[in-house]
Amino acid sequence: MPSAPASFVDRHIGTDAAAQRAMLDAVGYDSIDALADRAVPAAIRQRATDGSGIPPAASESEALAELRALAGRNRSARPMIGLGYYDTITPSVISRNVLENPSWYTAYTPYQPEISQGRLEALITFQTMVADLTGLSTANASMLDESTAVVEGMLVARRASRVASDVFVVDADALPQTRALLDARAEPLGIRILERDFAAGETLPDELFGVFIQYPGASGRVWDPSGVLEAAHLAGGLGVVAADLLALTLLRSPGSLGADIAVGTTQRFGVPLGFGGPHAGYMAVRAGLERQLPGRLVGVSQDAAGQPAYRLSLQTREQHIRREKATSNICTAQVLLAVMAAMYAAYHGPDGLRGIASAVARKAETLASALRRAGADVVCDAFFDTVRVRVDDAAAVVERARERGYQLWAADARTVAVSVDETTDARDLAAVAAAIAGRVDGEGLGVGLAWQETPALAGVAAEMHREDEILTHPVFRSHHSETAMMRFLKRLADRDYALDRGMIPLGSCTMKLNAATEMAAVSWPEFARVHPFAPADDVRGYLALIDQLEGWLAEMTGYDAVSLQPNAGSQGELAGLLAIRGYHRSRGDEGRTVCLIPSSAHGTNAASAVLAGMRVVVVACDEAGNVDLDDLRAKISAHAGDLAALMITYPSTHGVYEHDVVEITDAVHAAGGQVYVDGANLNALLGYARFGDLGGDVSHLNLHKTFAIPHGGGGPGVGPVAAKAHLAPFLPGHPFAQAEVHAGGAVFAGGPVSSAPSGSAGILPISWAYVRMMGAEGLRQATGAAVLAANYVAARLKDHYPVLYAGDGGLVAHECILDLRPLREQTGITVDDVAKRLIDYGFHAPTMSFPVAGTLMVEPTESEDLAEIDRFVDAMVAIRTEADRVAAGEWPAEDNPLVNAPHTAASVIEGEWNHAYSREVAVYPERDLVRTKYWPPVRRIDQAFGDRNLVCACPPLEAFA
């Protein structure tokens, strides 16, 4: 009798029963349950998944059918709301070869630059595009979205300003969601926000550290802000300008107007709306501010052969290094979306982008002219893509347009706004004109095809038109045919290492399978072409999906409410800490500002606490990596009156289950504090214990780790925040949220932490599908398989590399830390040498020197099979043997395959071979590699050279000659 077909759970978990039996034998346990019973403290164990609110596992076809039904509940409409979000056309060559290509979406953050050259080249193309269009010297590798980029711009201005003022002046024509975010983020930091209507002639106050201008404004208005920026400089402040990149192909750049910092979004460069994201925000700065830039910055350095190579620059700025002294808590970027935007610019080129922008401006001008002829009161004459019209009843006009299939925006009770984009056609213009003018037939208003002859930017002063050349680098002038673009993307992908090549055993990062069925719905237009501020009746499918996912996540974590708004784990942390702050202040405990954080914590913890207006006090860890209880009690006692919270990661950052966790949380609660449990390691707990049951009051969850959203080369991510009922009212709200009441009946009234009400909603179907196809029992099995895999690796490698931390029974959680410091003492071989030599063996290195310098943190995940895990273990054993040969004097300390790793093809075929080891040892240390070899494109990169010689834009082609 034939066996039943494999379930999704069977296909997601890489080790079958036979493999797990062999692994258990190596670890010394009879079953995964027995292993978990020993590792996970009994006091926090969740004994069964029966009665769970998670539905039974669905098959892949069943899950897709349910997603189709949810998608069908989103009403098809043409979004013309604007406010920073526009429909766009994703070129098919980019959609197929980037967005839907695992070579791009399963890659990790490019911390190993030698095997990330394709992605880094795409990102430096993004940076070049942004810097060129904004007219500023240096751009970073993307931000989370426009509104958070504005906040980061405000913080850069505060740090760089010469004055001590706490005043930041905001343009009255700012995007409303940006204004809400600025208010929410400024208050905990003691920043005062003052509003000025610059277009109406209002002037700056006497004291300020910075000014923010929207360009074009939320109203669509285009005006010359150079006088305001000059006045800000005279007062000692800096100018931050949020600019529409497509408009900048036709309008003067912020840099030419005097801006110090430019921010915004690249969404309309081919990135779908996705109900608000994910979208790559951007930031660019003038010369002299490069080292103030938050986030990641790609630069040019050179490799061991003196050839140009890309890498992340100025990493000492990053929050994971600076901790409470960090200037930002940004831990991720929107790499996948930044790549799409950069390739959109390369595909269309400068002429193509100007053509798209000109068409948009012409359509807007045609619509305004038609409305004027019909007697409508158009608010202003100088605009790019947005036309505002005064009407008797804005709500009635918006509803009339909605009945015709168009979503407009009621700016106030008597003003309607219409934004056009590259997808808008003559029929759309006619229908919208008719809805606004109250006519049946828009053609009678003279719209028709007239836009093709209408001048662009007709009402904009000539001195505001851009005259300088844009995007002059050859990368923007060489890939305009589909053949050329397809081959360009393939060349870049081939220079990278992603999960489609092999295991990425990164501790703390969970590079698990991102199944194709989970990814499928992301590209469906019913999810992709939806505006984040669309009316609730038009997005019932999204709201139902979000409600279900919030409920499932609350059930799995033991909390009462979940907000999906934070679009990164760092933003989820910040939202949770702001909720704690709001809770204390609501009770009159404004003095509770101390946040206790263990010394082993993720760097974002301390940075987030500071940005939430808290003061960080570090708690020591003992030799086993656990929180030092004596030090914790002493710190609680010392801060009994001002204790706000404890942030703790569980299982710990050291990869072990702390058995005293309930005692720890009880002590904090007894002192009046709240407990923030960092959810970074939830994939070692899911189905076995819940944060809410071990004393957590609030947590963030990394959907891009535990719940299978891909890392995308360093982003996108989603970092929902989950909380107990008493904190739920303080979770992130949003001025344009379609639903006031969330799963469990919670109402969120805290300030927003992202531009869109539901954050990066466009990728939530991935995690929805993952949970739906795994079911509660499948999720539990995944946790058990992940913990078994980590303990198997630790057991097999402990005789070659000491395992630094372990819990009861010598067990680890889902990851293990291998201590390479003794190896360096014995052989001279460093953690960097081992990491780079792993490339020659066909692997991405584990996490280097976190949380302890000189170590490797290994996380095999549940989705790798035993053969791949064994291949990694065998490589690590072989590398240890190679290091011992160096110690024995068989290979010189300065010339051996480890210190020279990685080896490129050119390095073994060009010139004479004068090394102490053979070519075969260099590039084929395992014979199986002969057929499957991944060839790194560059040799080891000189990091210091790149920081000393900072170049963060595309180098000329001659550099690669």
Automatic annotation (TrEMBL):
Enzyme Commission numbers on file: 1.4.4.2
Catalytic activity of the protein: N(6)-[(R)-lipoyl]-L-lysyl-[glycine-cleavage complex H protein] + glycine + H(+) = N(6)-[(R)-S(8)-aminomethyldihydrolipoyl]-L-lysyl-[glycine-cleavage complex H protein] + CO2
Protein's GO biological process: glycine decarboxylation via glycine cleavage system
Positions of the Glycine dehydrogenase C-terminal domain: 782-903
Function (record text): The glycine cleavage system catalyzes the degradation of glycine. The P protein binds the alpha-amino group of glycine through its pyridoxal phosphate cofactor; CO(2) is released and the remaining methylamine moiety is then transferred to the lipoamide cofactor of the H protein.
Subunit text: The glycine cleavage system is composed of four proteins: P, T, L and H.
Membership in a protein family: Belongs to the GcvP family.
Protein name in the entry: Glycine dehydrogenase (decarboxylating)
Organism of provenance: Microbacterium aurantiacum
Name of the gene this protein is made from: gcvP
